[in-house]
From TrEMBL:
Family to which this protein belongs: Belongs to the glycosyltransferase group 1 family.
Catalysis performed (reactions): lipid IVA (E. coli) + CMP-3-deoxy-beta-D-manno-octulosonate = alpha-Kdo-(2->6)-lipid IVA (E. coli) + CMP + H(+)
InterPro entries xref list: Glycos_transf_N, Glycos_transf_N_sf, Kdotransferase
Keyword Transferase: yes
Principal place of residence: membrane
Residues the UniProt record annotates as site (Transition state stabilizer): 111, 175
Record's protein name: 3-deoxy-D-manno-octulosonic acid transferase
Gene Ontology biological-process entries: lipid A biosynthetic process; lipopolysaccharide core region biosynthetic process
GO molecular function, one term: Kdo transferase activity
Active-site residues, record numbering mapped to chain: 44
Amino acid sequence: MRLLYFHTLKISLKGVVGFYKKFMYNLPTHRMKTIWFHTASVGEFNTAKPLLKKLIKDYRIVLTYFSPRAKDYIKRHPEYYHSLERLPLDTPFTVRSFERKIEAHAIFIMEREFWPSFILFTKAKKVLLNAYAKGGLYERFISRKFDLIITKSDKDRERYESYGCKKVVSCGNLKFLFEERQIKEMKKGDFKLFVAGSTHNGEEKILIEAFGELKKRHPDLRLLIAPRHISRSQEIANKVKGFRCFLRSRQRGEEWDILILDTLGELFDVYALADVAFVGGTLVPVGGHNLLEPAYHGKPVLFGPFTQKVRDMAEYLLQKGAGFVVSRAEDIIRVVDGILSKRISYNRVDISQESERIMSCYYSNIRDML
């Protein structure tokens, strides 16, 4: 009987060990404090890169992602983290197990990744970065679980403070930060280039219509369209009529009028080649994308009226004389033609001073909390 008991106990313990090997994790052997840093998407990762580059000098970074597209992209940039993992399933057990595995000293979350178990059942200090407020009972409840919230604007800070959050600081938009980098070598050729980046469905039709008229006035002008979702690239190309149109991945030196950028990670460098740029998500009610990327290269930036997600950037560029609001094809024709013909002037902006202020604000508040 005793032998049977010990045999049963051995089997049970073996099962428990197997369970923990599968669902729990070996403890790390590092000495630096660990930051669990969550960026759900490619865009959030790119926004966080300058801050990650600074943090990784002093902290162990365990980066988590959500979308498969983000994984494929982030894996190509291992210099920003020590370990890359998928965000655990949002249950109390899995998030706590993962937190114990990595020995997280703090959890950093970008913008609005308000997963309930992730936030409610982890024990480490929590920081919300590049935060903006949209309102609602859930936001009011979940935001009070953060130890530090760093917002994009004073308006967002005031909203979070009204919720009774522990500590809220307004440092500015992380998208104003650009790391020093070697621009990818890209040759343009002897032509003028209009780059339309991060475009959405409904915007390409307007841009192509405007390009048709602009091409008559400027025969050496070419249009490069970089859709926000590259899975739409072939669909966009199929709609182009009357122009030589190619996908970037399939273009083999042929002459082109319109090029669809269906590759990841090139848009920032392509903006450097532009004579004039448009940033999408602004002619349709998406709210806009990073208006500062073309401005970083000193380019004039066109954008539509829907800039609710990037309002601070839009106001900054308009104030500096580097931005132009367009609402329809006729507006695009007028502004682009005016810039190319030098009838409309613009200012080249230097955002380095603002970038330094924002980085200093973020890093000092993070260090104080850690």
